[in-house]
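Exercise: predict the structure of this protein bound to adenosine-5'-triphosphate.
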Amino acid sequence: MAHDVVLIPGDGIGPEITTAMRRVVDASGAQIVWHVAEAGAAQIECVGTPLPPETLELVRELGVAIKGPVTTPVGTGFRSVNVALRQAFDLYACVRPCRSLPGDGSRFRDVDLVIVRENTEDLYAGIEFAPDAPEVAELARLVEASGQRPFRAGSAISVKPISEEGSRRIVTYAFEYARAHCRRKVTAVHKANIMKATDGLFLRVAREVAALYPDIAFEDKIVDACCMGLVQDPTRFDVLVLPNLYGDIVSDLCAGLVGGLGMAPGANIGADCAVFEATHGSAPDIAGRDLANPTAEILSAAMMLDHLGETEAAARVRAAVTATLAEGTSVTADVRLAQTGSAEGAVGTAAFANAVITHLA
Ligand code: ATP
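Solution:
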């Protein structure tokens, strides 16, 4: 059966890595009808917004998309396309598996953990006030009236909403994921000792949800201690569930445990829609030079194939990526550099995809 999928190439290295990904998926045996749609910085000049309404409509209609990274232009007043997509389709669960692969160049071995990041709330909600906004004076009055320590005059304010509903559904998602993937433990990550209202709520709900899953172990960790634990011994962790901002930061840390940003896939899941994308950004420093590692994007496509029910094709893609990295003769510069301290002998994005396709065959 053929599946309709929206393909958003994105900015920077996006077009290169999505081209590589598409070639690999097309060679995997899965029948995908690609619907290419635009989003990104170039769209601002063409249509006045980085996320054109036609692209949003297509994602809404087809329900499945895979995208390259999109640059958020600084200082233009435009919202991040990623955040806009997550909010538009309520893609509340960001799932980022981090698994050691042979020859990934990491100093850590046997890492096999999954980050489940809440995607819609927290400091990422985008509720912000510049120092001169009238709301800041209003907030200052509210804080004073509540008897809490006033903030400094001239402060900028970002609001951190964490809801009971948002916390319950993301922690439930993490436990359901753990059950479905035969995982043993869920760790809730927070800073409830300091942010008693927001992270305290998240932790209380996490404990309540955990009680409904006696077959899966549960622990909670303060985010700073969790980061230390992750770099001391990542094999102690299994599924981690985190509010949005900690999820963002810890995701990159965990990508570093398995060879870097070029290796870490991701999925943004909602009730009616799913958008797949690598963890990394648009990496403008290496864009257009056939240097980018498409592994994260290809492994994101494997997650998409699983989501579409194409589990055999997904397994074949993962096996071909693993075999290519294990063979070690066709790896991109980031991996070669991590392995040997020099990028010498590395291959480009397209050649890496060719090697993966050869292993698929
Ligand atoms: P964002 O703000 O969107 O997260 P960023 O600029 O902070 O983006 P990235 O673009 O994710 O960060 O990447 C940081 C660096 O990691 C890049 O400059 C690049 O050198 C490297 N990098 C990222 N992705 C890849 C990749 N797929 N292959 C090789 N190197 C990569």
